[in-house]
Design goal:
heterodimer; A: mainly alpha; ABC transporter involved in vitamin B12 uptake, BtuC; globular; B: alpha/beta; Rossmann fold; 2 domains; six-stranded mixed β-sheet; five-stranded antiparallel β-sheet; 21% strand
Chain lengths: 342, 336
């Protein structure tokens, strides 16, 4: 009963922090807009500058929403991978899904004017489609191999190898690319929450929310997997089917975020650790919803910090997420170790 | 989206006029619109005189083009000043009249929205970041002069700037002057140069040497300056990575070695040898025939694109000094 009370308190606290961070994300940016004007923009009062409404409604608001969804999606994807492989270092990128997306983007940005030039138009949409196709290709290969490979460790190694192989192809493409094309590719690789915008929000949020719901539905089999393959089997779980489902959901969540926001590295590995330590639980009925919540809040924090420094634009999301995430994870783990000793 | 930039699926249904050298844009004779080709070959129609008077440009070459047609005063947003040579724009940035809207990879989207520009000049690299502005109805003009494969074709993009700012005639006449001076010198070299010395270019980096393609605009300069490019036998329009030894073997015998090397301190032969001791084996090194451009000292990457006639004269002066003895080098000079 006591842990339940504690969990409700934690959920409420993190949720409120998330709301606060969401408002700060809308309120703060490189152009300073007074809070009163921000209020007026939402509730129909007079605004000093017309451009401010555009900045708030069309730039900051979709960016904050994207951060929440992307953070949740990556974190859940990471959690599923960590549970499936019983490996604390697993993350959304571990099966080569983000590498697959990178290869897709590299094909479009770096091979433009070459092989793909007649078929594709280099713009937002083609980059998203290419990334999703690349990630989807890797997921497809994994789903094909998974039933044929009994051991999860072997599957993990295959995933890592796919990742290495695909990255090498990207390297070769980079080597032969002009600096303009390279820059386009690097821009994508830095990660950004700003490219979804309202025009793509329907697709992005639709797929992410579907994936999150699927993850919630997987809570029970995930708990069984945690007990070990033999236990899971004895409890009546169809291990093969469960494994395919987990890989599909985790893969699609990672793929959609990578396609729209670039390869955002750290969130997926870090948030499940933070959650497990905060909630002191391995029960997916608790940590799965908690990871969804914390992932969104963590991404909001990252998004806010990456746009704070002074007047100039934004720092890459990728850099900030690792920069603030790494110490947090180390701190959380250390704190728990010390308690165990004490 | 406003009526000035509509994507059109048809590629070749237009009467192509107005672009003599450039291949990435042409004018549609019927409508007078300018047609820009993106890297995939699709065209975007651009109505003339639509850029307005609040211009944001995201590359320093755009500043050079706009300055040349007297539109510099309308630039309200520019990329980071560290890469800008133009003293007027630098002064305007200092006074706050012109805002810095991009530094390196980072684009300040909010600031651009606040500036409420009447047009944004960029290239396709940033296409994915432009959807926000296009959704606001701000015309985004994709300038892709760097995809042209001859010096005059790159300079001809001044016509695109002239068209959108309503200064078509001025731009045309500026280009005609550039073209006339370039071709006059080119023809004079072809007639009067007694021999065609061999040339190669670039430097090694981590074992790799990026060599200008045989069909690139650099190869065009080599040809027009009356030199024999030793890597002219490939058909590449961009740079190709080559092994150091492949370049070493061919470059060793060359009469001239062209390098673009940004350095805040004075470049010397000792300095070059410090980077790679094998450089000293090159004929051009031994004979002090290195042709150097230091982009930290000249606006090569900014203004060079609209001064191909001056770059050509620099090269001719370095290789055939007797043909234009009065020339004062601007971008390239023989390293002493």
């Amino acid at each position: 009963m006591k842990t339940q009370y504690r969990n409700i308190l934690l959920f409420t606290g993190i949720f409120l922090a998330g709301i606060l961070l969401f408002f700060l994300n809308v309120l703060l940016g490189s152009v300073s807009i007074p809070a009163g004007d921000v209020f007026n923009i939402f509730f129909g009062g007079d605004v000093e500058k017309a451009s401010w409404a555009t900045i708030i409604i069309d730039s900051r608001l979709p960016m904050a929403l994207t951060a929440v969804l992307a953070g949740s999606a990556l974190s859940v994807s990471g959690l599923l991978m960590q549970t499936l492989f019983r490996n604390p270092l697993a993350g959304p990128s571990v099966l080569g899904v983000s590498s697959g997306a990178s290869l897709g983007v590299a094909m479009v940005t770096l091979l433009a004017g070459g092989v793909l030039s007649e078929m594709l138009l280099i713009n937002n949409v083609s980059i998203i489609i290419a990334a999703f196709a690349g990630a989807g290709g890797v997921i497809f290969v994994l789903l094909f191999l998974a039933p044929r490979v009994g051991n999860n460790i072997v599957l993990l190694i295959i995933g890592l190898m796919i990742g290495y192989a695909v990255s090498s192809i990207v390297n070769v493409l980079q080597f032969f690319s002009s600096d303009h094309d390279l820059q386009a590719y690097i821009l994508w690789g830095l990660g950004s929450f700003s490219k979804v915008g309202w025009q793509n929000m329907v697709y992005f949020s639709g797929i992410v929310i579907a994936g999150l719901v699927a993850a919630i539905l997987l809570m029970k089999p995930l708990n069984m997997i945690l007990l070990g393959d033999n236990y899971a089997f004895n409890l009546g779980l169809n291990m093969r089917k469960a494994r395919l489902l987990v890989i599909s959901v985790a893969g699609i969540l990672a793929a959609i975020v990578t396609a729209f926001c670039g390869p955002i590295a750290f969130i997926g590995i870090a948030v499940p650790h933070i959650v497990r330590n905060l909630f002191k639980s391995n029960n997916h009925r608790v940590i799965c919803p908690a990871v969804i919540l914390c992932g969104g809040v963590f991404a909001l924090l990252v998004s806010l910090l990456s746009r704070l420094p002074g007047s100039m634009g934004a720092l890459p999301v990728n850099a900030i997420s690792s920069l603030i995430g790494a110490p947090i994870v180390v701190w959380v783990i250390f704190r728990n170790r010390n308690r165990e000793v004490a | 989206m406003s009526g000035c930039a509509q994507k059109s699926p048809e590629k070749k249904a237009f009467e192509k006029v107005g672009a003599k050298y450039a291949e990435q844009f042409f004018f549609d004779e019927a409508s007078g619109d300018i047609m820009l080709l993106d890297p995939t070959g699709n065209t975007t129609a651009l109505r003339c005189d639509t850029a307005g008077e609040r211009l944001v440009c995201l590359s320093s070459t755009h500043i050079a083009f706009l300055t040349a047609i007297g539109e510099a005063g309308h630039i309200i947003g520019a990329p980071d000043s560290a890469y800008i040579f133009d003293s007027d724009i630098k002064a305007k940035i200092r006074s706050g009249e012109t805002a810095i809207v991009a530094s390196g990879a980072a684009l300040n989207e909010e600031l651009i929205l606040e500036l409420a520009p009447s047009a944004i000049f960029t290239d396709n690299m940033r296409a994915s970041e432009m959807t926000l502005f296009e959704a606001q109805g701000i015309p985004v003009i994709y300038i892709e002069e760097f995809r042209e494969n001859s010096p005059l074709a790159r300079a001809e993009w001044i016509k695109v700037f002239g068209c959108v700012t309503g200064k078509q005639h001025l731009a045309d006449s500026i280009f005609s002057t550039i073209e006339a001076e370039y071709n006059e010198l080119k023809n004079s070299v072809a007639e009067n140069a007694k021999l065609r010395p061999t040339i190669f270019g670039g430097t090694e980096y981590q074992g790799v040497w990026y060599v200008s393609g045989g069909a690139s605009y650099i190869a065009g300069f080599y040809q027009d300056a009356g030199t024999e490019y030793v890597f002219a036998d490939n058909k590449h329009t961009s740079s190709i990575p080559m092994d150091f030894e492949a370049v070493y073997e061919k470059g060793m015998e060359c009469d001239f070695w062209r390098i673009v090397f940004a350095s805040s301190s004075k470049v010397s032969y000792n300095m070059l040898e410090g980077f790679n001791a094998h450089y000293a084996d090159f004929n051009a090194f031994k004979n002090k025939s290195v042709i150097l451009c230091n982009p930290a000292e000249s606006a090569y990457f900014e203004k060079g694109v609209i001064e191909p006639h001056i770059i050509l004269a620099d090269l001719v002066y370095a290789v055939h000094p007797e043909l234009i003895p009065e020339h004062k080098p601007v971008y390239y000079r023989i390293l002493n």
